[in-house]
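Hi support team,

I submitted a single chain yesterday and got back a structure, but I'm not sure I'm reading the token output correctly. Could someone confirm the output below corresponds to the sequence I sent? I've pasted both exactly as they appear in my results page.

Thanks,
R.
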Amino acid sequence: MRAWARLFTVGAVVAGYVALHLALGAGAALRAQDRFRDAPARAAAFTAALKHPADGAAPPAGIRTGTAWFREHAPDGRTRSMVVAAADAAGAGRISVARARVSGLAAEVRREEAGLARDAAASRTVTLCWAMPAGVLLVPALWLRRRRRAGAAEVVAVVSRFVPRQPWWRRPVYLVADGFGYVLFVVGALAAQMSQQQGYKMPLTAQVLLLAGGLAALGAGVLVLRHTRPRAVRGAAQALRADGRRPVLYLRSFADDAAAAEVDDGPFVTLHSREEQLAGALGAVGPVITVGRPGEPLPHLGAARFYLPLDDWQPAILRLMELSHLIVLRLGTGDGLWWEVEQARATQPARKLVLLASGRQPGTAARLDAQLPVPSGLDAVVSDDPWTAAVVVFDPSWAPRLYPVGSSAGARHRGPLTRQLARVGRLYRTAMLPLTPTHHLARTLQAALATVDVPARRMAWRATFATQASLWRGFALVTTLGLLAWLGYRALRFFGG
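Hi R., thanks for writing in. Yes, this is the structure output for that exact sequence:
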């Protein structure tokens, strides 16, 4: 339903945008037809003014008046050229030549009137052909949007009680500032890239100025986005309402927030943390929500935050476990986390629980195995990544299935040719794309979820896309602003006469 709603919405927006451009064109055609309405009478008066003067006489005032009218009101075509040519001949004293020039003026005026009428009718028809689909597509888009919101009403009602209220103007203001930051970020990145790739074609001064300006814009964009992005982010209730699917409940220790907020190095400039990449990957299943640290001035970026009271948080967690499509729990040392593991085991189907284990937490495997019917094997996992070393899912009997996280995790290739092609593909992706540790985690998650019949397509690509979300949003914003500016320019020209 979500995909169909997006498809209908995009179709309605595109068709509506094209219809607006066509409507301006239809208005211009109708205006041209209306401006030419007096052409038969003006043509008759112009022809009559040429009847009496002889060759060598000064052209009468009616010729100058008629010429000015046709220059202003007639479309570019034969009528205007005939009148202008006749006026030039009359101005040179060649009245007989001028009369010959306008001998078929009345017939030409009728032909151009008919042509303008056809153009206006065709413009109206084409505009309606685009406007009607826009209206038709808008109806199911709005209906699906309403159904989507209704489907999330129950979980939204639970989460809304724990989302702090903000002034209504706060998010729109920061979204505008956020957009300005994205534009700076993209323009700076493009300018810096152009100076590197095309600089040899430029004078040295131009290359240096382009590079300096690009780096300055890029740095300014980064500073703006660091300030605005946490303030423009959706709260948990807004994220659930906008998505409509059952959520992914992400549970972790607050002590893990520092590691999750790290930004991995890559070949491209990125602003997006590991948690943002993980939330992007889990977005294949549903919107990701999590409990925010009490008292934090700004939410961390990634999963949408809500804030529970310190003395009464368990009932809300239990209710959200029931309403969630998936529970992703990052193991740690806190007693609250292990209470959540116990409650998930006791109250939820095994397929809903996914555990993420870091590589440097001694004692975690033993504590987990004490709650399971068979050992998890987590103590045998070795990983250089301290953030996530393994993914654990469960079969219906709560027997664990362990998936170590690594660059080859999730890959199952049979045959030498298939393995070789997969190796080439990995080398290409590594060279062309910033494959972060979260990318490998997402691949492992997708493989693990497939074994418990939880559909989650393209999780790794979602994580990779999240690393460059600022660039894509900036490109989209620049393109949108360009299209709106073009439409506004045409509208100003039309209404300005």
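A quick pointer for reading it: Residues 105-151 form the longest helix (47 residues). Let us know if anything else looks off.

Best,
Support desk
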